Amino acid sequence: MSASLPRLWKHIQRSAQMEPSYMSVARLMRETRSDAKSVLHTARWLHEQLPIRFAQRIEEFLQLPHVVICNPHINSTLNRYLETYEVITDFPDILTSRDEMAFAKLVNEQLVLHDSCTTFLAEGYREVRQCYPQIQLDAFLNDLFTVRIACRILMENYIAMREPVDRCIGVVRQGMRPLSLVQSMATRLTDLASSHYGNAPELEFRGNPDCVLDYIPRHVGYMVRELLKNAIRATIERHQQNLFNLPPVVVELQQGDIHVIIKISDHGGGMPKRVQHEAWQYGWTTAGVDSPQQIAGYGFGLPLSRLHAQYFGGDLFMQALPGHGTDMYLLLTHLKQGSSATEMEDPTTVVYQKRRSMPPASPVCDR
């Protein structure tokens, strides 16, 4: 546990009691302008709002069982949240363009600091459940990752608006072609699988290759990578006795008025209906112990991909045929400026409403 927690605790409690100012995608896009006045306004807003969000997550960490917080990986994640809270609250008022430049540097540093938090949490959760299989943290993780998605969008959008790029509104890329991203991701993953297993299935692309989408490319990349990883690995492990005659993984793209649909189909054997609901639980995986980590992951890929899709009103669902294979349907909502889809409520409002009914947290050192 960070030595700074006792010193910061009263400040954290005070920040955590405040209600965040929520940000719909529509508002975010309207306020994404690169002039100096807008950038300064956004920096001041983040300086005020980020400590509230991080303080509330710190309180949620401190509600976890002691054996969970004591896990080195989970404790390291908590310490990063404490560090971010401390450095942002210690940052002086942002009055000038020089102050804003220094704050942007700080925000960039904190984004990098938190890059590995998902992996740390996944490793820590796996270790905890190996010793205490009865511990289930799905509700905590869902709330934590919902707020993490929101914070990273706000922070990355602030950095992006300082250096505008053609056909982008902050982090939202206008008219991106999902096919190009899927093809690039598929090449990297099949090369990785071939180097470990000796071969990899080919990918077949069907449907509408000219689909376009206004979306955050990093989010699409994450979701597609997780789904392709599962499909490629399941196909190889299902057909190990016939490794050089693997059935293909099929990717189909279709464009609708509200969504772009990406369907990924494999012949990896599917899974029994009785365990299909478990695939959406954090930490659940069918990967064998010998599967490479870059392909297998920690069992966070499916629930996190669905959370990313649902964040903007999309979805991810599965149709598994036991003994045959699995179809995954990824629905991505068009984030077109001015559309009704961008006006939907910030998902973190639900997380805050849940908090209001919970008892206040106390630091572990006081227990």
TrEMBL record:
Subcellular location: Mitochondrion matrix
Occurrences of domain Histidine kinase (ranges): 223-336
Cross-referenced SMART domains: HATPase_c
Domain of life: Eukaryota
Main localization (coarse): mitochondrion
GO cellular component annotations of the record: mitochondrial matrix
Biological processes per GO annotation: regulation of glucose metabolic process
Molecular function terms from GO: ATP binding; pyruvate dehydrogenase (acetyl-transferring) kinase activity
EC number: 2.7.11.-
PROSITE patterns for the chain: HIS_KIN (PS50109)
Gene3D superfamilies: Alpha-ketoacid/pyruvate dehydrogenase kinase, N-terminal domain, Histidine kinase-like ATPase, C-terminal domain
EC main group: transferase
Keyword terms of this UniProt record: ATP-binding, Kinase, Mitochondrion, Nucleotide-binding, Phosphoprotein, Transferase, Transit peptide
Family: Belongs to the PDK/BCKDK protein kinase family.
Record PANTHER family: [3-METHYL-2-OXOBUTANOATE DEHYDROGENASE [LIPOAMIDE]] KINASE, MITOCHONDRIAL, PYRUVATE DEHYDROGENASE KINASE
Protein name: Protein-serine/threonine kinase
Species assigned in the record: Noctiluca scintillans (Sea sparkle)
